[in-house]
Design brief:
The protein is an all-alpha fold. It has a domain of about 200 residues: Growth Hormone, Chain: A (Up-down Bundle). About 65% of the residues lie in helices and about 0% in strands. A two-stranded parallel sheet has the order 1-2. Helix 3 crosses helix 4, helix 4 packs across helix 6 and helix 5 packs antiparallel against helix 6. The protein starts with a helix and ends with a helix. About 10% of the residues have low confidence.
Length: about 350
């Protein structure tokens, strides 16, 4: 009877995608923990396919945008270079915001879904600027000394809109795709860890192949055959990227957002600024943070703060009201030791930047 119930529960888990949502760090078979069914390599074609087609569609086009702006939109080289510098700069900064939203609110699955659709819209609009005559300036011949007309405000607005969608797409895909693929393997087992290592190898192999193809064939088509065809092919490839991603929806393990390290760093910096004029009375008092003496329950919250869960336990202990109020105040204003160590660990990386 029990085996039949287990089989029915497994079938229900496969039918309901929400059953695959799991907190990071959970493992199969534990008590009081939801069972997570890691599909591993069954989900990899969709994850790797999403990334491969996305790179095929965007890398070559991004490398050839300067030619597109100067020949089709008749921009001066200086203006086109400045515009592309802004585009590349925001594309490289957007993943910071995308990672924060993914870790804090959306989760990797919904961030990737939204970003893939945004990249598809960006490539589609960019293709329209080449395919529709009213969305780009009239062609001219510089060789005969003919003056080329500038792009109209409407034409530039449509062009900037396509860039905006591409930036949003890059901001969501870049920080999440690799981590989302690793989420599909169980890190608690040897086979899962081997699967993660193998996934990294295949990920970078397909990334390199996609970059080579995109930066050769796509650029050749754009420069020598037709910009409409050269931009239309990447748009179709982005459509395949979205299709691959959404086809694997029922197979994915979706890790719930647990908070961004940026929030912890901000808490440490805020607390340090607020306490910048605080005078330290006795250095020996701070040794209790690491080696606390045996104390009563009433002082446990003011001597050692290891995690927020410790502060939550104060509510269930027999403590006085002032001590409980102090716990609540410290919980909302002071960073925990782990967050301070996290900031210290990130300083070398920031120094290199």
């Amino acid at each position: 009877m029990a085996s039949k119930l287990e089989m029915a529960e497994k079938r229900e888990n496969r039918a309901d995608p929400e059953k695959f949502v799991a907190m990071e760090g959970e493992k199969d078979g534990g008590e009081d923990e939801p069972v997570v069914e890691y599909r591993g390599w069954k989900a990899m074609p969709y994850v790797i396919g999403n990334e491969t087609f996305e790179k095929l569609g965007t890398l070559g086009t991004a490398s050839n945008l300067l030619v597109y702006l100067t020949t089709i939109f008749h921009m001066k080289s200086v203006a086109a270079t400045a515009l592309l510098q802004i585009f590349n700069g925001t594309t490289n900064l957007a993943p910071i915001l995308g990672a924060f939203l993914s870790d804090t609110y959306l989760g990797r699955y919904y961030t990737l879904a939204f970003a893939s659709i945004s990249s598809l819209l960006g490539m589609f609009i960019l293709t329209l600027t080449a395919a529709i005559k009213k969305l780009h300036p009239t062609p001219c011949n510089n060789i005969n000394g003919e003056e080329c007309p500038d792009a109209s405000p409407i034409q530039l607005t449509v062009l900037y809109l396509s860039f905006l969608f591409l930036v949003i797409g890059a901001g969501g895909i870049r920080p999440c795709n690799l981590a989302f693929g690793a989420d599909q393997f169980n890190p608690q087992t040897d086979s899962g860890r081997r699967g993660i290592n193998s996934f990294f190898n295949w990920y970078y192999f397909t990334f390199t192949v996609a970059m080579m193809i995109s930066c050769t064939f796509i650029i050749y088509i754009q420069s020598n055959i037709s910009w409409t065809l050269g931009l239309g092919i990447p748009a179709v490839l982005m459509f395949f990227s979205c299709a691959f991603f959404f086809l694997g929806t029922n197979l994915y393990v979706r890790v719930k957002p647990e908070g961004s390290p940026l929030s912890n760093v901000a808490r440490v910096l805020t607390a340090a600024y607020r306490k910048r004029k605080l005078k330290l009375s006795d250095q020996n008092q701070f040794q209790s943070l690491f080696n606390p003496p045996t104390i009563s329950h009433e002082k446990i919250c003011s001597t050692r703060i290891n995690s927020l869960s410790k502060l939550e336990k104060c509510k269930r202990m027999k403590v006085s009201l002032p001590a409980l109020e102090e716990c609540e105040r410290m919980k909302g204003s002071l960073p925990i030791l782990g967050e301070c160590e996290q900031l210290k660990g990130s300083l070398p990386a920031l120094r290199r930047v």
